[in-house]
Amino acid sequence: MSTVDTTSGKRSALAPFAKPLAAVGGVLAIVAALLPWVTFTLNDGNWPDKSTLQFFDAPFAVTGFRWHLLLLGVLILVAAFAPIPSRGRVVRALGWGVAVVSFINGAYITAKGGGLGAITALDGATAFGSVAGLVAGVLTILAGYGYGITPVGEWKFKPPTPVAYLVLLVSFAGVLLAVAAMLTTGGVGTSNPYAGAIFLSFLGFAGGVLGALSGVGFIRWLSVLSEEHRVFSVIVLAACALLLPFTDAGNEYWMTVAANIGIYAATAIGLNIVVGLAGLLDLGYVAFMGIGALVAANFSGAAAANFGIELPFPVAAVIAAVVAGIFGAIVGSPTLRVRGDYLAIVTLAFGEIFTRSAQNDIGGMTNGSNAIPGIPALSLFGKEFNRELSIGAVKLPAGVLYYILIVLLVAATMAVFANLKFSRIGRAWIAIREDEDAARAMGIRTGQAKILAFLIGATLAGLAGAVFAHKNATVSYESFKFLESITLLAAVILGGMGSIPGAVLGASLLFVLPEKLRDFEEFRLMIFGLALILIMRFRPQGLIPDRHRRAELADEDVGGAPVDEVHAASKEAKA
Amino acid sequence: MTTPVLEARDVSMVFGGLKALKGVTLTLEEGKIVGLIGPNGAGKTTFFNCLTGLYTPTTGQVLLKGNTLPGDPAKVTDAGVARTFQNIRLFPSMTVLENVLVGRHVRMKQGPLASLFHGPAYHRGEKAARERSRELLEFVGLRGPDDELSRNLPYGDQRRLEIARALATDPAVLLLDEPTAGMNPQETEATQQLIFRIRETGVSVVVIEHDIKFIFGLCDSVSVLVQGELLVEGSPEVVRADPRVVEAYLGKPPEEVELDIEAAKGEQA
């Protein structure tokens, strides 16, 4: 039955070998997991997860990347023999996972261990784990092509409500654990000399599994299911986000990183209204966040604030949002006259005007390069947000209250985005994006609609900026430069234009990856840039595309194997 | 005499040195179908653009039920003139239903706040708009799944969807720019029936078309536009019998048509 489900028409020459290749690949991956990987102890200390020859002391204590390989190997065997839809995609994705995990660990060991001596039979010792893993990966990928890359499976199965709830609950809990694992693997910052490798290797594993789940049609089925039980899904997802502090990621460092990601995610969702829905390219968007932050800072009662009045945070935040919104409408007004590239230049100029004005302290509002430091932390019932929190016996890390506030902020911006998208005004924006003249011929006042898009987008950015001011305690023009606008735009495009989870994922990637890649020191930004280029090459529609955009840009061959290309990207970047 | 539902009075349009329209007059009585024919480049689409506010005529005016139409396509649509395009201009990445819902835009009362908070009024309005849109899809004969992206529809269905989208604006006048271009005889016949049914709902129609047989079978009155000027206007029988039209359409080479137009100009002068 190995080749029966090849419906793509042209049969691969590998088709007759698909099953044996997958079987050998799976077994070899398991063997690779159990083989030693390093012949001696590296200079920076033991390669993690018992990879040296000492492994034979305790062969059953398999953890870390070896455990991932073992799991992938078992999954490959299951995929090769169980009756599943679009087997080719599943096997190919798992194969990529094995290959990336093996390659990253092997290459790292070679590089850090000072040459091939680390993995070959010098000194009379052998450690062919990475080689075996790589071969297993390649064989499995070939098996995937042998099976044929058929369209992603579609599951018609509609479970009864309680079962659906259970599935959603388990899946979202899985997402939570995966996020926590992704944040914490390899340790915090640079505390572990092998942090970068561990993280990339984990990404390879996660990408392989996700690619397989997506290939078999589970992800699509899950998204249909969550759309059907929308309210339940939203509640569970929010609960999962609020539970992150209770996982391994519940320390001050990751709470801070997660809170920063949240602020940028909220801003990116605002930008997504302007760029993703209305199709107006805005290159100076971060200025609105800056305006919000400055307004909030000046009303915060900080010693360096320029207004003598201290307002409670909710009031200051609303004023910040309104002021940013007014500026949004002002910047948006040229959109009545200019389109496309010309609009991008107008917004770019506005962003530059903002930065330069803030740098030179125009109007005495920004303190120029001295910034506005010492903005007090938010507090509620006398509890300062940047302190640790203990409820009864449960101790939560410092910054957890900011994290919760920002999760709520992101949830609110998501709700705004989703509600607007499925409304009269949202349809008008999309129509303008698609064909402005036709939209006008349908009675849409395109000028008003475009200004409204700018206004709402800027309001959300201003709100995020107000939280940013208190969270970071300092507001300086340097936080709102052109590069930040571009990063936000990249987050939107990377995640998938017009898609909400896409904007959040994009913001997370753009802010977590640089943290995690610190290990690579001077190559960090180069690798980061290469990763972005490769993602855009293989997923032009973004990682989690909006339904509309997906249809527009999906390349049939690449469409079904989503996340593993990302890791292929990191892999190639490293090589 | 009743006020015509749409009236173009002496409309001229000049682009730089090019006189695209020279004093074209057209009258559309309520519940009628008027055809607009003419060789390529005669100014038919330019004339449509003047009727819909995309262009502001250099001289002359366009009246809807006796009121001057504003020079803005959005306001013209709001006032009750809807159109389709010569090259189909749907919103390709929106679904079939969403395309029609965009057409409902001007008739929906949902403001920004209702859009933002999705209260009961939003749900009522949205439900009504969806129902009306589905009715229109049914009316034009699109019975496939309405969550298909419009770009994936077959060509003839895209034309029909464009008509449904235009009808969703509840127009008094519907302007169709070559609705049967690229269609086979069966589809053309179906389109003709559809336009008759549209007229039955009280919508007056102006049709641009190259298919003479289609126009003569459809219209109550036909106007022939040549080189930006109105050559002939009248019932299909009159226009069919007019020697200049016969020459223009039934076999004479283009050079001779040009000569005839010159002659016609001479006669008018």
Automatic annotation (TrEMBL), chain A:
Keywords: Cell membrane, Membrane, Transmembrane, Transmembrane helix. The chain crosses the membrane at residues 21-40, 60-81, 93-111, 131-150, 162-183, 195-219, 231-247, 253-278, 285-305, 311-330, 400-420, 451-469, 489-511, 523-540. It is found in: Cell membrane. It is a multi-pass membrane protein. GO terms for molecular function: branched-chain amino acid transmembrane transporter activity. It holds the Pfam family BPD_transp_2. One of its GO terms (cellular component) is plasma membrane. It comes from the Bacteria. This is Amino acid/amide ABC transporter membrane protein 2 (HAAT family). It comes from Lentzea atacamensis.
From TrEMBL, chain B:
Residues 6-252 form the ABC transporter domain. SUPFAM superfamilies: P-loop containing nucleoside triphosphate hydrolases. PROSITE patterns: ABC_TRANSPORTER_2. InterPro entries: AAA+_ATPase (IPR003593), ABC_AA/LPS_Transport (IPR051120), ABC_transporter-like_ATP-bd (IPR003439), BCA_ABC_TP_C (IPR032823), P-loop_NTPase (IPR027417). GO terms for molecular function: ATP binding; ATP hydrolysis activity; L-isoleucine transmembrane transporter activity; L-phenylalanine transmembrane transporter activity; L-valine transmembrane transporter activity. The keyword Transport applies. Pfam families: ABC_tran (PF00005), BCA_ABC_TP_C (PF12399). This is Amino acid/amide ABC transporter ATP-binding protein 1 (HAAT family). It comes from Lentzea atacamensis. The lineage of its organism: Bacteria, Bacillati, Actinomycetota, Actinomycetes, Pseudonocardiales.
